[in-house]
Design a protein that fits this description.
With about 950 residues, the protein is an alpha/beta fold. The protein has 33 helices and 45 strands.
Length: about 950
Amino acid sequence: MRCRVREILLVSSLYDSFILSEDGRLYEELLSEYIGLNLTHMPGLTRVSSGGEAIRMARELGRFNLIITTMRLEDMHALDFAEEVKKSKLDIPVVLLTYDSRELADLMKNHDLSGFEKVFMWQGDFRILLAIIKYIEDRENVDYDTHLVGVQSIILIEDNVHFYSSYLPMIYTQLMRHTQSLISEGVNPAHMLMRMRARPKILLCETYEEAWQYYERYHENTLGVISDIEFPHRGESDPEAGFEFARNVKSSHPDIPILLQSRDPTNKKIADEIGASFLLKDSPLLLQELEEFLKSNFSFGDFVFRMPDGTEVGRARDLKTLEEQLHKVPAESLLYHGERNHFSNWLKARTEFWLAHQLRPRKVTDYETVEDIRKYLITCLHALRIEQHRGIVVDYDPETFVEAESVARIGGGSLGGKGRGLGFASTLISTYQIKEKIEGVRILIPPSVVLGTDVFEQFLNQNGLQDFAINTQDDQEICRKFIEAPLPAKVIESLTSFVEHSDFPLSVRSSSLLEDSQYIPFAGVYQTYMIPNNHRSKKKRLEELLSTVKRVFASTYSTHAKRYIEPTPYRLEEEKMAVIIQKLVGTRHEDRFYPDFAGVARSYNFYPIPPATAADGIAAVALGLGRTVVEGGRAVRFCPKYPRHLVQFSTIEDTLNYSQRDYWVLELPSETTKADPRREFNLSQFGLDVAEADGTLSLLASTYSRENNAVYDGVSRIGSRVVTFAQILKNDYFPISEILELMLELGSRGMSAPVEIEFAVNLSVPSGAPKEFYLLQLRPMVVSHEREQVKIEIRNSEELICRSTCVLGNGVIKEIQDIVVVDANRFNRAESAIAAREVTLFNLELTAKNAPYILIGVGRWGSADPWLGIPVTWDDIWGARVIVESDLKDLKVTPSQGTHFFQNIIASKVGYFTVNTAMKEGIVDWDWLASQPAASEKKYTRHIHFDESLVVVMNGHTHEGIIKKPNRSS
């Protein structure tokens, strides 16, 4: 292989770079082809945040031979960056790694992407890095390696970015495993090099002509063909192209295996006639079936201590066991490996480059005795392991698990979206040394253990559950089957140890591959459970924990999750679930457990009120557990930069209407009672009188005096309690604003994007002890920076169904002909749940017809509090292209920016109109809507269909928008 990718320039945020490094073992596997017993061609990875810095470094250093860029950079769009690279005449391939299929579709439709060597899509699989590197290398080396040693090639014909971004990582992983099995015992560099060069090349093609050119040139060395059926041929999309290509290949080489793929199952008959295999693209097990085809048709690891004669005398799977083995392996084995640089090479495969480079220059002859070598290696490894525990995710070990600061893992695979965020947050706190940066406060991560996605896959495979779960619609039956099935024995062993060392309440949280992704966050889709973990019997506590973990696994295949994933570009088969087992933040008050307060903060405010700006951020806090905030309940909202500017409490009436009235706690049963792990049985709501008795209300509440019609800070007076956080926000008893500004700034800087954090605070600490701020989650936000300015023209307000000055979204939508409206005149807040069910039924009906619609209602959409609005979840209304929420007669509507529902609206790029007629913030023509004939009607909701299209115009720069009536728009 002449051309290697030796240096990669990654133009992205620090967060993307962290993602590549947090799953260390997976990264080793991605780069295993570069690591051998005496091969040191390890690609370097340099990350920069801006396009300008990337071009400067590429020009000045001259060592980079691959540039990978994400869509939005610090200073320019990726399209502009690719053009600048071309103008700079750097002659370096630029690959675009995109996250959002809809954004990619828009780019492909409206822009020339020829500036990129190739476009790949991030789908939560870190192996995409392997696919990108190998795509570049195989293209450059196929001719040389084929003629030199006769390497085989696999021709892959696919023009769909989503599909080939799924296929390539899996295909390359299979090839790497095959290659590694051939060279795992090789100690001769020449022999190893030959084996490495024997790895088949993957030749990715998007057109018939490109594929046929490769085939004609390398037909004698073609191992097989994997092809779509419809792809470009003679400049046009040809629905028969795959068949023609397969026939031509079979006519000259009948033994070459060919796999044809299509969404049309009738194509299987033609494939069979040609002599080709066939896969249905819509199969829920497509990737598994493709993997099985590769194993059937297309013919790293432990450090093994050996004696000179090849006898195995020890085996190490990681740094810890390597250190253990070094204490006891014979001197002859130690000398044998030391003379051949096996230790430094194995460490490189583990991405432990610093130590590998320290060992590499040293020779066996530099030491007086073999025991000196042994002592040096053990000392270096031990020091490295200690350093590794600081601010990163480590393997769970009860001997090294430090309760107050550790994020540990059990099992391999990915940590999932939430796990990555948690690990990255731990890295930030450690890197910037902010644990005790603010006087009187400790900033911490709750002690957490993450079950990697490998545990999920092992659980499914050993119990044969995936096919059943994908095809079963009964959530209770799925849950029952999962609970009955055993977890892998090693996982049970680790969790047994965890329970023995953990006697505090736990939060058991989902952390799937797709959760907290920047473009489709899957917020609130999967389950989180809280368990008391206080039973006197350790066996009972273990059973409770194991059952809860399996409930989280089962939520991957819930009806709710299946409905959510259906309109996304992802496949349920691709989703993998990690689980975070985390110490629940809080204090015990009799049989109740909860933090003093919890909340959500965002570094970007979609609805800033002067003097605050969007970049100043927004926070929402509430007494007790954070469920109040994330489910859209009554909470205190403030800008961390202007904490005393509380618009929601601008009048006495507003203070009484919008302040928190109850709070969530985890109930603790007696030590002999086994708790039900289901969330609704463990979490309960209590009134403010209980919090006052617990002593947690004094710093968070004010008092309303009916006699004086006034609100006074504190609870020393007689009167009604209202949660205002006055002592915190006005009197600086606890520096929450300073902490949030610090964490949001660090998070945004690390991710090169706006961020959202979840947190909990313990004020109830022993006298003299610092108060505690716990960072529970860190995730990137979905913020669309619009490139185009949309002009809004209103000739006559009577032509409008709706106008708002509080709109999220940008652009013009003209293909909607349906409206689902909750009738403002009929709506009864006491029966908002009925209205929610009616909306769900209309959504099912319209999505079945592929009919996008406008959803109009009163109160806040998606609030769990039925008195604030209509309690739908995202999968209840996902077919809506535009959502309108209007104020109630006695209650203005305020978008709850910390909720899961809001995250999904933003991620799905749904137009979002908020109307407060009483405050002159827009209009809804309720009378006109009521006068339109309904295609279908229920108790509170109506479906209106129009023969003409409605027109929606949104300006994302000014946050203005209108919806025009049909026949009055052009």
